[in-house]
Amino acid sequence: MIELEKLRKEINDWDEKIVEAFEKRMEVVLKILEYKRNHSLPIFHQDREKEILEKVTSNLKNPSFKGEIEELYIEIMRISRKRQSIELFPYNIVLIGFMGSGKSTIGKWLSEKLEMDLLDTDSLIEDKMKRNINLIFQEYGEEYFRKIEKNTIKELSDEKNKIIACGGGVALNEENIQYLKKNGKIIYLETKVENIYDRLRGDTSRPLLKNSITKEYIKDLLNKREAYYQRAADFIISTDGKEENKICDEIIMKLLCSKTLY
Ligand code: S3P
After folding, report:
1. Could you tell me the sign of the dihedral formed by the alpha carbons of 181, 183, 185, 188, in that order?
2. Is residue 241 left, alpha or beta, with left meaning phi > 0 and alpha meaning psi from -120 to 50?
3. Which residues make beta-bridge pairs with 117?
């Protein structure tokens, strides 16, 4: 028993040191963030994370812990990214745009890159209604869907530091926009008809396109909506011909260069 107590005391002492070191490390992370902001340098750097991981695992006194140290550092760097995002984006990053413009996909990429939670309005509605969007339209009609959509947006308006991927019709309603702007910056992902068509051809999950996926139909609907998307947007990002990572970097850069940050 005495022996166990002694070992526990030893653990407590090491924990104290670990916590102290972690606090110091986080303070330096925030100093680096401040420096990068002041000098307009890119903030998130995957190569640097790889470098750190290699460095901390290269000279271990007890190499049998290499796997655990790797795991620990992946988590430490994830926590650092998360903290940096909280400092940089104390507001929501809201993605709007036509069906198939990549809101959910880019939302996921941003969420991973910035360690920010992703809220997808369609998924939230599906969870609430315990049905997919197609079934909701079929059983309750579009008007009812829009009501639930509006309530969902209203509930999201108090969130902070989240990525919000909106359904393609969200921006058509002025009240929705006001709610989203309360704590958020709105990014319109602009996409050409041809690319939307290529992405959605064969898709049966969208009730508004179900029987009518032609370029003409998409063009027509996009023409009707374009002005709403543009009016709602704080920034417009064209997605055509760009890789996801590049689109995310553009969004981050635009937000960080914006003078009207919260
Ligand atoms: C809609 C877009 C869909 C979904 C619903 C209505 C629209 O979301 O909300 O089918 O009116 O454009 P996505 O844009 O994610 O497909």
Report:
1. negative
2. left
3. 162
Residue 178 in contact with residue 153, Cβ under 8 Å?
Answer: no
If the chain, 262 residues long, is cut into consecutive pieces of 10 residues, what is the mean pLDDT of each piece?
93 98 98 92 88 96 97 97 96 98 97 96 98 96 98 97 98 98 98 96 88 90 98 98 96 83 43
Instruction: Give the ligand 1 atom nearest the CA of 104.
Output: 15
How far is the centre of ligand 1, averaged over its atoms, from the C-alpha of 96 (Å)?
10
Which residue, judged by its Cα, is nearest atom 9 of ligand 1? 167
CA of 101, closest atom in ligand 1: 14
Check pocket membership of 120 for ligand 1, CB cut-off 6 A: no
Of all residues in the chain, what percent are helix, strand and coil, respectively (each to 5)?
Answer: 65, 10, 25
